[in-house]
UniProtKB/TrEMBL annotation:
Native source organism of the sequence: Fusobacterium pseudoperiodonticum
Name of the protein in its database record: ATPase
Lineage: superkingdom: Bacteria
AAA domain ranges (all copies): 2-155
Cross-referenced InterPro entries: AAA_dom, DNA_Partitioning_ATPase, P-loop_NTPase
Length: 235
């Protein structure tokens, strides 16, 4: 149970995809009522899930915070999404936001947040999160971005670092080993890398979630997400 924040200060590392698959695991496999929130005004969660919302400028997270009418969209059985309307969250919303989150916690077993540091919600998300998952690339810039982020958050909340879209290069292996040494000292789980697979790209194109596929080649990827949840749930 709780709030899981998927976050990296660097864009393009697959936060949205990882958020959706993490949430879908609890919804599909564990039958837990799970809500996804985002601070990404593009609302790509909807595109990945193949769900259309005609107008994302209203009835979303901002209206919910302000106590106005809002609409939580059902993506799949047990899996729901509250979209971002797109305008900047006001600092005066802080307390209202916390109250709104407490209301959602009563309704949902898990809240998984696709965190982007652009809409004024970043610090609030970090504050309310029970657990933090950090996607990364195995390169110089992203690796050091992760290490910098770890200096600014409560390490007790950080449950996993997840290398994403990885090939088989020697340099990537070196960065993986480097991160493994750094994180093992801090007691943070470094997952096996999620490889760059054409099969995953095909799922995205077909608006199919990982857990909806029976392809055996994806069992390894599913195992990575399961291992992340084991860290979160302390199993």
């Amino acid at each position: 149970m709780g709030i899981i924040l998927v976050k990296n200060n660097k864009g393009g590392v697959g936060k949205t995809y990882i958020t959706l698959q993490l949430a879908a695991y609890k919804a599909f496999i564990k039958d837990r009522k799970t809500l996804i929130l985002t601070s990404d005004s593009q609302n790509d969660i909807l595109k990945f899930a193949g769900v259309k919302v005609d107008d994302t400028s209203k009835f979303g997270l901002e209206d919910f915070i302000e106590g106005k009418s809002y609409k939580i969209k059902k993506l799949r059985e047990n899996l729901f999404f509250l979209h971002l309307q797109g305008y900047k969250i006001k600092n005066s919303f802080n307390e209202s936001f916390k109250k709104a989150i407490n209301i959602l916690k009563e309704e949902f077993d898990y809240i998984v947040i696709d965190g982007s540091p652009v809409m004024g919600l970043d610090n609030l998300f970090i504050e309310i999160a029970d657990h933090i998952v950090i996607p990364t690339f195995l390169d110089n810039i992203t690796t050091h971005s992760v290490l910098s982020m770890l200096k600014k958050v409560d390490l007790n909340k950080v449950k996993a670092i997840v290398p994403n879209r990885i090939g088989r290069t020697k340099l990537e292996k070196e960065y993986y080993d480097f991160l493994n040494k750094k994180l093992s000292v801090q007691g943070i789980h470094l997952s096996f890398p999620i490889p760059q697979l054409g099969l995953i790209s095909k799922l995205i194109d077909n608006e199919t979630l990982l857990w909806e596929s029976k392809a055996q080649k994806l069992d390894y990827i599913k195992g990575i997400f399961i291992s992340i949840w084991r860290e979160i749930d302390n199993e």
